[in-house]
Write a structure and sequence with these properties.
transmembrane helix; alpha+beta; 11 strands; ABC3_permease_C; transmembrane transporter activity; MacB_PCD; ABC transporter permease
Length: about 400
């Protein structure tokens, strides 16, 4: 009785390593697909985590400290007056955690009223320039950066002086490049001394395209805001925004807090989770496509190797090797190539994340599970890609192989 042939694990590894080393160039090219696929996989997940962390950081700095209060009095009572009291800024300023607060609204000018840099002449540009009434607290809450001059203060607002602050876009359109000549802008026939030019803001970007005048001056010239136009912008200390949002309507209108609607910042965890989920779904799809392309490359190269080694396979079968021994050998080779490609790809992916974070001055974030699982993904990809070539190799008949 002939004893069945056996193939020990050590012999399988030795044959697989020998098969890879016989053609090192082809082995490198075979593993290259896995390197690119796993490297893309690790880099995408790392960049997603890093970007999400950066978004969360910026969100905490700006959006998490911002509360907007809207006038909804007319929705509650069609006969109600504007909801914001005259001392709205002072009332909100007494709440703990408030840094700056102020009421603002768009001024509705009569038809034909234009903004000019001279008392006579046509309006500059074909588009109308917006005029915004704002208390000093609202301007400060926008966190502006001044190109020239200064913002108007509480005294200027209380005395209803005719001063204005221009956004840089408006200043450029009006041709006002310096404040040394004490320029003025004319809203209709009313002159306003330009106190400052805003170069940039962190909130309310519409300020850059508007002429902003004191709230009291606007009320004296054009009357109070229309129903629903007025809003209040509040900036708070970190962590106080939700509390301020709950207290603001009562502090402003204790008799009718329902006339005001405070909009707190969204939950940062929810925002971050949403952003991360969206990025993960998109980028994981791209990483999956890269892995599939890498797997197809491994399968194709391994299949070519099987055809080239038909004589070797036939000789081994003639010496007693069974089909499953051939299958195990080729699966071991493709799995080893996939694992090596996974290790190299992981290193490249991590390096990519670190380099991008350094260039962008971000903090690199990598999940441990991603780094640990990536080589395993390469191994599985290699084994799966080698299934068909290994099956083809096991089906080769010894006599047919030796005749070639």
């Amino acid at each position: 009785m002939v004893e069945p042939s056996r193939l020990a694990a050590r012999d399988v590894l030795a044959e697989a390593v020998a098969g890879m080393l016989q053609r090192p160039g082809r082995s490198v090219l075979t593993a290259l697909g896995t390197v690119l696929g796993v490297g893309t996989f690790v880099a995408i997940l790392g960049l997603t985590a890093t970007t999400s962390s950066q978004i969360d950081s910026r969100f905490n700095l700006l959006t998490a400290t911002e509360v907007t209060v809207e006038d909804v009095a007319r929705d509650q009572n069609e006969f109600a007056d504007p909801a914001f009291p005259a001392d709205a800024d002072a009332r909100i300023g007494r709440l703990g955690g408030v840094e700056d607060a102020g009421v603002y609204w768009p001024v509705r000018l009569s038809p034909g009223t234009a903004v000019r840099s001279a008392p006579v002449g046509d309006a500059t540009g074909s588009e109308r320039i917006d005029v915004v009434a704002a208390s000093p607290g609202a301007l400060r809450a926008a966190a502006p950066t001044l190109r020239q001059g200064r913002l108007y203060d509480e005294f200027t607002s209380r005395s209803a002086q005719s001063v204005a602050v221009l956004g840089k876009s408006v200043a450029d359109r009006l041709g006002i490049t310096t404040l040394e000549t004490r320029p003025a802008v004319f809203i209709g026939d009313e002159p306003f001394t330009v106190a400052g030019i805003i170069d940039d803001v962190q909130r309310r970007a519409d300020v850059l395209m508007s002429v902003t005048v004191p709230r009291t001056t606007a009320e004296k010239l054009w009357g109070p805001p229309q129903q629903g136009d007025a809003k209040m912008l509040i900036t708070t200390a970190t962590g106080a925004a939700n509390q301020i949002a709950r207290e603001a309507p009562v502090a402003l209108r204790p008799d009718h807090p329902e006339y005001l609607k405070a909009v707190p910042p969204p939950d940062p965890r929810t925002l971050r989770a949403g952003v991360t989920d969206d990025l993960d779904q998109l980028f994981l799809l791209l990483a999956g496509v890269s892995l599939v392309i890498g797997a197809v490359g491994i399968a194709n190269t391994t299949l070519v190797a099987v055809l080239e080694r038909t004589g070797e396979i036939g000789l081994r079968r003639a010496l007693g090797a069974r089909g499953r021994h051939i299958t195990v050998q080729f699966l071991t080779e493709s799995g080893a190539l996939g694992a090596m490609g996974g290790l190299v790809g992981t290193a490249l992916g991590v390096s990519t994340v670190i380099v991008v974070a350094l260039v962008r001055d971000w903090t690199p974030v990598m999940h441990t599970a991603t780094v640990v699982a990536a080589p395993a993904v390469g191994l599985v990809t290699g084994v799966v890609a080698g299934l068909y070539p290994a099956w083809r190799a096991s089906r080769i008949e010894p006599a047919e192989a030796l005749r070639r």
